[in-house]
Amino acid sequence: xxxxxxxxxxxxxxxxxxxxxxxxxxxxxxxxxxxxxxxxxxxxxxxxxxxxxxxxxxxxxxxxxxxxxxxxxxxxxxxxxxxxxxxxxxxxxxxxxxxxxxxxxxxxxxxxxxxxxxxxxxxxxxxxxxxxxxxxxxxxxxxxxxxxxxxxxxxxxxxxxxxxxxxxxxxxxxxxxxxxxxxxxxxxxxxxxxxxxxxxxxxxxxxxxxxxxxxxxxxxxxxxxxxxxxxxxxxxxxxxxxxxxxxxxxxxxxxxxxxxxxxxxxxxxxxxxxxxxxxxxxxxxxxxxxxxxxxxxxxxxxxxxxxxxxxxxxxxxxxxxxxxxxxxxxxxxxxxxxxxxxxxxxxxxxxxxxxxxxxxxxxxxxxxxxxxxxxxxxxxxxxxxxxxxxxxxxxxxxxxxxxxxxxxxxxxxxxxxxxxxxxxxxxxxxxxxxxxxxxxxxxxxxxxxxxxxxxxxxxxxxxxxxxxxxxxxxxxxxxxxxxxxxxxxxxxxxxxxxxxxxxxxxxxxxxxxxxxxx
Length: 518
Hints:
The chain is mainly alpha-helical. It is 54% helix and 5% strand. The radius of gyration is 32 Å and the shape is elongated.
């Protein structure tokens, strides 16, 4: 009878456990990255985000996308990744709790990867998702920057906010998994954080506590018109440092919770705390006196900081980043001026770019009309509806002499103004619809301009529509032949219709159509 001798398995020693720690950690990170991408929320939101971004790149919008302002484009890339970040937070939290949920934590004691390395692997698994977001952000900005109508300067610090938000969400999800051994609090944490951010933003709005908003991952400050990049005053670099430092700090906290005790972790934690604190301090200073003074100068005395470029008989003054767009303005102004008669067709116009930046980047204040003769306002946006609106501004000055006089115009000269502005457009009837607030071509409405709008009564609208349906050359000849009478405030609407060869409109009750008393 023979006896079987069983040799016990050797215990895992310290050197064997740490022979190739990073190789095992990276292998586990690759596995967790594949698993993370297969989670339905991450896969769906990442697909939705990339698909929507691709659709925006391939499908043109209302025309303003052809003339991007790069210091606005870089900020516009920040909000989209937030949905991906939320999905990453929820799913990486669930992935980090997989072993606890399935009761396999006790088996990890015989593996060569200690708990802190498994925690690090879960955080590293978020890097591929952040890399995809970074590629999409880069593609969005690059396509915008390569368009012929692009102006301004982007910021790398603004562009990295999206990918850093995803990394921050991943580190936070892993830390929460190490603090609370359940995935149930994660959705509640998202809801609570959203409510907290909303309440803080409302409380800080219009107060001196606006710096609190910068504690949020994304502070886009949209709503206002584009401004030159030197007027932004955004602490983008400090904010990026804050996000990076906070991400590393959360990672260090998760590693500490997982049992790692080392001098290297202590040093890294100290650096992360210093970086986060420096970022918070740097982004909390608010708009400096130099930025506020520069905004005031650009708003009140733009001529001091602008460059003037002649095109033909007219001069176009723009902020330095917009000088390349003066040719587009000149093409539009020349097209309107060629249709005018009398001295207007040979008059010298000064087209000046204007903005209102004294009330911050989210303010969309209206511009007061200029009183100088021959001066026309153009804004910092271009393309789409902004083109016929600028044409209305040029036509108003050609007819009334200056913007301030044109702002009080409510007689039959409106017909001449609107025909000059719209007849020069490729599709006049579409331009008529686009330039009116209610997108109509009948009835009374307000037509937008770069400063004060133009009011159109129902009879005036009828006459303009009749003129746009006639051959442009025929109407142009009539306008040039009767310019003096068409630009006189004393000429009634019925006479204007007669001079231009269209039926006189029926006068509707309460709308005389040719009098400021209507």
